[in-house]
Amino acid sequence: MTTYARQPASFVRGQGVWLWDTQGRRYLDALSGIAVCGLGHAYPAVTKAICEQAGMLMHTSNLFTIDIQTQLGQRLCAIAGMDTAFFCNSGAEANEAAIKLARLYGHNRGINNPVVIAMEDSFHGRTLATLTATGNATLQRGFEPLVPGFVRAPYNDIDALEAIARDRGDIVAVLAEPIAGEGGIRIPDAGYLAALRRLCDTQGWLLMLDEIQTGMGRTGRWFCYQHEETLPDVITLAKALGNGFPIGACLARGTAAQTFTPGAHGTTFGGNPLACRAALTVIDTIDRNRLCKRAWESGEYLIAGLRQALDSVEGVVEIQGRGLMVGIKLDRPCAGIVHQALEQGLIINVTAGNVIRLLPPLIVKRAEIDMIVAIVARLVHEFLVVP
């Protein structure tokens, strides 16, 4: 079906930060499959683990205990400070689980029509519930009626949330991204997550953080909320968890961790042995190679290079990021730069219409970062300056 406006390239092989197309041309991947391939392409340990596990056992269903799923859950909960885990196949499914959990939490408290606060300009998925939570009217258009049970608030605005708290008694949770990814790499003010935590504690709401794009070392910590040492009640993740093998997770702690009971939620494929083996290998690799620290240092180097090259260029509004999640905001729409970069052998994308998004693999080397900076700076300069 025509659900994608695809770029004119087809890749047949990958290695590290590089991809090769059907013509044998090489491209530097500064997008990581949209923050998925944090270890780059064809990472040997992940390839080996998937092959070995496929030769032993791929699927049994969740009607039975899956030891490797238990191991993965324990490992993730230890890293995240959570108590329990539900495994699924994607980020949208992880957010669906969180939304269902929040509604059940509300019903258990006697709230007949529980409501979740979601943010403007957010992105949480394309199922009907996650599309409703997503703060993008363009994506929602044509799919009405949307799912009830959501109210919208501006991102990075605690006062607006406090006003909602004064006006309504049916709120049960706040769903937010620690950094707005699809919304333009928007980094909230320092203390925003901590303020969300205090407000949720005061109101008895669940704090649910969508770490699907920011998680698994992308921002320089395992999870972005750890920069502020603020602990949410629910976390959703996917993307880089399997380094390209589909797996998602919804983690919870405290009361939220005990909300689901047998039969309240489920999945056929989620948490199967093959997916869990891939995810455990990803975690081991990030941990062993200290890739969170490396992502932070590489991100600082990338941002510094971009600022040095572009700060004096009129039309560049701002360059910001955290770790290897970086955005270059221009003063005008710039979607065409994606194709121009592809012609230069660089894979990037544009989000929110005017923000060049860079999400290179955590293993990217400084020489490769220099290449990213050089190509992007040249393209932006030509786009904004050259008549």
- Alpha carbon gyration radius: 21 Å
> How many domains?
2
Q: What percent of the residues sit in helical stretches (DSSP H or I)?
A: 25-40%
CATH architecture of the largest domain, by name, is: 3-Layer(aba) Sandwich
Could you outline the blueprint of secondary structure elements for this entry?
Blueprint: E1 11-15, E2 18-21, E3 26-29, H1 32-35, H2 44-54, H3 67-80, E4 84-88, H4 91-108, E5 115-119, H5 128-133, H6 137-140, E6 150-153, H7 158-167, E7 171-176, H8 192-203, E8 206-210, E9 234-237, E10 248-252, H9 254-257, H10 273-288, H11 291-310, E11 316-322, E12 325-330, H12 336-343, E13 346-347, E14 349-351, E15 355-358, H13 366-384
Parallel strand pairs: 3-13, 5-6, 5-7, 7-8, 8-9
Antiparallel strand pairs: 1-2, 2-3, 4-10, 9-10, 11-12, 12-15, 14-15
Structure characterization notes:
With 387 residues, the protein is of the alpha/beta class. The chain folds into two domains: 11-30 and 290-384, Aspartate Aminotransferase, domain 1 (Alpha-Beta Complex); 46-288, Aspartate Aminotransferase, domain 2 (3-Layer(aba) Sandwich), CATH 3.40.640. It has helices at 32-35, 44-54, 67-80, 91-108, 128-133, 137-140, 158-167, 192-203, 254-257, 273-288, 291-310, 336-343, 366-384, and strands at 11-15, 18-21, 26-29, 84-88, 115-119, 150-153, 171-176, 206-210, 234-237, 248-252, 316-322, 325-330, 346-347, 349-351, 355-358. The chain has a seven-stranded mixed sheet, with helices on both faces. Strands 1-2-3-13 form a four-stranded mixed sheet. Strand 1 and strand 2 form a beta hairpin. Helix 3 (67-80) packs parallel to helix 10 (273-288). The chain starts with 10 loop residues before the first strand and ends with a helix.
